[in-house]
Amino acid sequence: MSTQHLQTELPGPKARALIARDAAVITPSYPRDYPFVMSHGCGSEAWDVDGNRFLDFAAGIAVCSTGHAHPQVVAAIREAAGKFLHISSDYWHEGMVALAERLARIAPWDEPAMSFFCQSGTEAVEGALKLARYVSGRSRFIGFLGGFHGRTMGSLAFTSSKYTQQKGFAPTMPGVTHVPYPNAFRPLFTGADQGRAVLDYIRMLFDRSVPPSEVAAILIEPIQGEGGYLVPPQGFLAGLRALCDEHGILLVFDEVQSGVGRTGKMFASEHFAVAPDIVTLAKGLGSGMPIGAVVAKRRIMQQWKRGAHGNTFGGNPIVCAAANATLDLVTQEYAANAAQMGEHFMARLRDLARRYPCIGEVRGRGLMIGIELIEPGAERAPARALVDAVINRAYHNGLLLLSCGVSTVRFMPPLCVSAAQVDEAIELLRASLDQALAKANA
Ligand code: PLP
User: Fold this and answer.
1) With a 6 A CB cut-off, is 236 part of the ligand 1 pocket?
2) What's the gap in Å between 148 CA and the centre of ligand 1?
3) Could you tell me if 296 and 378 lie in one domain?
4) Above 60 in pLDDT, residue 2?
5) Out of 20, 129, 312, 415, which could bridge 334 as a Cys pair, Cβ 3.0 to 4.6 Å?
């Protein structure tokens, strides 16, 4: 293991000083896992204020899709900023229309699309919920346990990856019924096909307590993110599509985390060849600039009447410029790189899993990859403490990681990551596993 890129103990003196200032003036509600204080970044590497170099396999929670400070994105931002910083969505400008045209071209269905722009994932989800209620005249929704859709009162009603996110905020938006997300590693239902079992469960709800004629939409992450990087079984999303078609229910895919090339395709839904009616985007779309988008089939979004939904900052010229540059890079190069690097990374992780019995499963698509850590024994008991220890050791070894789900370490490097950087991350991960396991067994 190489830690030559580390110049100081961690956190270093400058990081400690900034964290002390932060503690006095910034909310303690941010869920921060370790004391990384950023100075600057380049591609998949980041430096802290004490001059220590890190491999960034968290990418600002899957946001820095084109890497830190990609020159093409920075140039687009600079050029846009030199013209005007804001005009508001009450007016028109080239960058906003060009972005919507691009999104219409790549939307994951074969018909015209329209977009609504906002600043974040949660606002995109709120927009999708409002659109679904507005056009259907129905009030109920189906969501999935383990889902994460944001922290405002509508999206929070669906968010159920950790109870701390809901605790203290009830009541959130009424009308949401949660069903399990199919999980073959920790099956909830008897039988091999967890996807079919969940579809049967929804049908049972339709019969007994959630009349489908009252359901506006089913909201799902086509690959579940914060809930554990869970990939649904083939056939499941197609089954949901069929259920929606049967009952006139809208199918909304939340691709805030999985979209924009992250899984090796522009949208995760493409892995399953299932088209939603509405897709929500944010995170990687702006390479770090705050943007969210509701992209819907035109025949659905054009039903919104003037004033039905809007905002001040949506379609901001700087973020649209960043998103246009990001989509150029992802389309031309980085979605393909994510697919290729993802395969290499998964193969290296599977090698590691053969040597470390605590790695219960390696799963994901493209560069949305998770390893599930388990306690010894056949029960596959979640090794939560080990996940925390590995992530902490990884930081001390110069690798930025985050957790998700019950006991998953997740990897979401920038889509421009190289094979050499993946290999370096594997070595740092291996060292971190060794250190965490040695401590656990001491
Ligand atoms: N939807 C998904 C799938 C997410 O992963 C997230 C954030 O992690 C959100 C929505 C909320 O996005 P934001 O934090 O930008 O509001």
Assistant:
1) no
2) 7
3) no
4) no
5) 415
DSSP string, 395-407: HHHTEE-EEETTT
pLDDT digits (tens, 9 = 90+) for 49-85: 999 999 999 999 999 999 999 999 999 999 999 999 9
Do 39 and 76 sit in the same domain of this protein? no
Q: What percentage of the chain's residues is helix, strand, coil (to nearest 5)?
A: 40, 20, 40
- For residue 68, the model assigns a pLDDT of 98
Residues 105, 238, single domain; the answer is yes
Task: Indicate if ligand 1 lies below 6 Å from the C-beta of 149.
Answer: yes
Cβ neighbours of residue 354 under 8 Å, at least 6 residues apart?
Answer: none
pTM for this entry? 0.97
- Mean pLDDT score across all residues of the chain: 96
Cα 206 to ligand 1 centroid, rounded to whole Å? 28
Give the amino acid at 325. Answer: A
Residue 283's nearest CA partner among 114, 118, 103 is 118
Quick: pLDDT tens for 391-438.
Answer: 999 999 999 999 999 999 999 999 999 999 999 999 999 999 999 999
Q: For ligand 1, what atom is nearest to the CA of residue 254?
A: 3
Ligand 1 atom closest to residue 119's alpha carbon, by position in its atom list: 15
Cα(384) to ligand 1 centroid in Å equals 23
Cα-to-centroid distance, 50 and ligand 1 (Å) = 30
Q: How many domains are contained in the chain? A: 2
- Spacing of C-alpha 221 from chain mean position: 9
Q: Choose among 267, 288, 293, 238: nearest CA to 365.
A: 267
Tens of pLDDT along 282-299? 999 999 999 999 999 999
Please give the single-letter amino acid code of residue 160. S
With 80 as the cut, is the pLDDT of residue 378 above it? no
pLDDT at 442: 83
Q: Verify whether ligand 1 is closer than 6 Å to residue 226 (CB atom).
A: yes
Mean pLDDT of 129-135: 98
Angle of CA points 202, 207, 212, to nearest 5°:
70
Which of 330, 355, 378 is the last residue in one of the domains?
330
Between the CA of residue 409 and those of 205, 272, 373, 406, what are the distances in Å?
33, 24, 8, 10
Q: Which domain holds residue 284?
A: 72-330
Q: Do 323 and 437 share a domain, yes or no?
A: no
Return the ligand 1 atom nearest residue 125 CA: 10
Cα distances (Å, whole numbers) of residue 243 to 60, 236, 429: 36, 11, 42
**Tell me, what's the pLDDT at 1?**
44
What spacing in Å lies between the alpha carbon of 281 and ligand 1's midpoint?
9
Which region holds residue 242: left if phi is over 0, alpha if psi is between -120 and 50, else beta? Answer: alpha
Residues 429 and 304 in one domain: no
